[in-house]
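User: I'll paste a sequence; please echo it back and then give the predicted structure.

Assistant: Echoing your sequence first, then the prediction.
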Amino acid sequence: MKVTLNVFLKEGILDPQGKATAHALEVMGFEGVNGVRIGKQIVLDLACSDEVSARAEAEKMASDLLVNGVIEEYTIEVAA
């Protein structure tokens, strides 16, 4: 199973990369960008037989190592 974790800083946590990117887009003439959040994507190829076990395994990996729960939040997408 292919599992994708999308990790972002929590709302209210300073995101200097996002602010710099939003400013650069504004300077380049792109209008209507109200904010930018920069994150990371982690793609896992897991040897799980079903979506439920793959999601559970990814949740455990995220909470134990891959995500700093104090300042980051994440979403999980599972594909066969």
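Residues 2-79 form a domain with the Mth169; Chain: A , fold (CATH 3.30.1280.10). The CA atoms of residues 46 and 57 lie 8 Å apart.
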